[in-house]
Task: structure prediction
Amino acid sequence: MFISFEGLDGSGKTTQATLLADKLRSQNHVVEFFREPGGTEISERIREILLDKKHLGMSQITELFLFSAARAQLVSQVIKPALLDSTIVICDRFVDSTTAYQGYGRGLRLGAVKTINTVATYGLLPEVTFLIDVPIDEIIERRHKSGVAIDRMESGGREFYEKVRQGYLELAKEEPKRVMLLDGSRPIDVVQDDIWKEVSARLPRRKG
Ligand code: T5A
Result:
């Protein structure tokens, strides 16, 4: 099973993805957990380039190809082999991030972005995607509280994030069977309950 988590920076994706991985492992499922961009040596090096605040002059097309290159390596080197081995793969971000951030956020042509997504993933899509939706004001408040330093992508500003959020909501409308929209402004355990209900219903039944 391939599961992805999506949402704005600070929406709580990593929190939810980690809780899900822990719960599955506690029930003896084999789980691989990856963050995007990242997850392989090459993809982690691309991540450093992408998030480095020194690279404010990066062209939008370069950015698109770098995210896609990191993903292509992750899919071919680890995700595909893991899925063939019946491992449950959880990804903190996948192609929908590129559609939302580079397509809707940066304003690159959606048709081109989706084609590049398909090439980078060899057509692989998650079986279920949890989109953790949180209003921008709440995200800003969480960011202030956590005191985490912002990276190059996070210097995009409010207008950029509004576009990304609308893009995500559009994706949830376009693909309601795959993308499950969750209100991430609720408490962590309440969001996790919704995720667990969906995932546990999809787990293969065990004999005995
Ligand atoms: N990007 C990525 C693209 O532009 N295109 C792409 O194709 C891809 C793959 C990656 C950046 O790259 C961009 C998107 C990003 O800008 P990153 O450093 O990997 O950046 O970080 P993010 O994925 O953005 O994730 P973050 O770690 O910043 O945030 P999360 O994972 O959304 O949030 P999380 O779980 O760390 O939680 C943030 C805080 O909120 C609290 C947590 O305790 C934590 O303090 N929290 C809650 N508080 C209240 N209620 C809840 N329900 C809460 N859930 C979590």
